[in-house]
Amino acid sequence: MNRALRAATVGVLFLSPVVLSACSAGQVTQTATQERDKTGGMAQVGDITVRAAELEHPRGGAYESGDDAELRMVIVNGGQEADTLVEVDGEGIGGVEIEGAEGGTTAAPTTGATPSPATGAAPTTGAAPTTGAAPTTTTGSQEIEIPAGATVIVDGDAATITLTDLDEGLTVGQYIELTLTFENAGEVSLPVTVANPDEALERGEAFDFHHEEGAAEEGTEDAARERESAGEHGGGE
To answer: Where is composition skewed (Low complexity) in this entry (predicted)?
Structure first.
């Protein structure tokens, strides 16, 4: 009976690392397949995926009312056909300026602007602006093309989108809601937060524990030598 018990115990101990290894492998695999894009807003519509959408960190640490904010994001086209970002809408902004890869900044007109009357001109299709209401939707005529199977980074180099005349101040962690319209994929809305600073904030000088421990040891040794010296002088007397 003792031999059988010992054999069973050895078998359990032998199998335990195998079981633990299998569990660990499953956790690693699950972690590896999780979404890596943890910063900025993310949304998907059709073959278009928008990642890392955020407002550039303001120089002073916060946006004030009336400031402009640059929108940064990554647009991925996973389809077989090219698509185009044709419109950017949002609440709490006065306008949008879009500069595509080929340049040519276009200021976006606000939806509540009063058009100049033109004799004999046909009325523009669209809803009439509400009297006294602040504009909540802005568009721009400049477009950004996203080729098939390609990724376009909107960060001020290849393309730039600037939200102008913010209605309210914004700081890190706060967000505004934007709606992006693509020619083929359609509309998608997502929250866009104010980004954290790119560079880490300066911190105080690190505390050197090893140096402090060494100083304490030296102080202890000095005190011991003083006690020995005092004992020798006392014994001589």
So the answer is: 104-140
**Other CB atoms within 10 A of residue 5 CB:** 9
Domain 41-112+132-194 has CATH 2.60.40.1890: yes
Q: Which two tokens stand for residue 20?
A: 């633990």
Q: Which residues of 98-127 are buried (b: 16+ CB within 10 A; e: fewer)?
A: bbbeeeeeeebebbbeeeeeeeeeeeeeee
Does this model's pTM top 0.85?
Answer: no
**Residue 87 in 3-state DSSP?**
strand
SS3 211: helix
Q: How far apart are CA 87 and CA 74, in angstroms?
A: 16
- Give residue 88's pLDDT: 94
Q: What tokens appear for 138 in the block? A: 């802005």
CA-angle at 46, arms to 181 and 96, nearest 5°: 15
DSSP one-letter string for 137-182: -B--S--EEE-TT-EEEESSSS-EEEEES-SS-EETT-EEEEEEEE
User: pLDDT (tens digit, 9 = 90+) per residue, 112-166?
Assistant: 333 333 444 444 444 444 334 344 444 445 799 999 999 999 987 778 999 999 9
User: Taking the CB of residue 169, how many other CB atoms lie within 10 A of it?
Assistant: 13
